[in-house]
Amino acid sequence: QVQLVESGGDLVQPGGSLRLACEIQGTILDPDIYFMNWYRQAPGMEREWVAGIGWSGGPTNYRTSVKDRFTISADKAKSTVYLQMNNLKPEDTGVYYCKLVPHRGEDYWGKGTQVTVSS
User: CA-to-CA distance for 69 and 2, rounded, in angstroms?
Assistant: First the structure.
């Protein structure tokens, strides 16, 4: 059983920063993890992909609107993936979810953490 636990969401003013964390809990081995992704969902909108990282040290990818502001990273020793978010904008508001993509089998989702960017 694999569980993803997100944390770090908060209310922040425009231009501020937050660091989200997603801890992988349960029985899954590092070689079985292919990719880790962050998604977000604003009220009334569909969930959208934000950033991704290869778990074995592969590439990082970002949606255009967050490139140069967000940084995804992974600490395999802590089984945790991070999303550093700088220069936050009101349009970054939403619930942020992480998703684990294994080499085989189903994907896993966390329950999300709320980010609100407002003055």
Answer: 30
pLDDT tens for each residue of 41-95? 999 999 999 999 999 887 899 999 999 999 999 999 999 999 999 999 999 999 9
Q: What six digits make up the tokens of 92?
A: 């970054």
Cβ density class 22-56: b for 16+ within 10 Å, e for less = bbbeeebeeeebebbbbbbeeeeeeeeebbbbebe
Please give the mean pLDDT across all residues of the chain.
Answer: 95
How far the first Cα of the chain sits from its last, in Å, is 40
Alpha helices in 1-119 (DSSP H): none
Q: Identify the DSSP state of 15.
A: T
Bridge partners of 14?
A: none
Instruction: Please give the distance of CA 37 from its chain centroid, rounded to a whole number.
Output: 6
Task: Fill in the amino acid letter for 48.
Answer: E
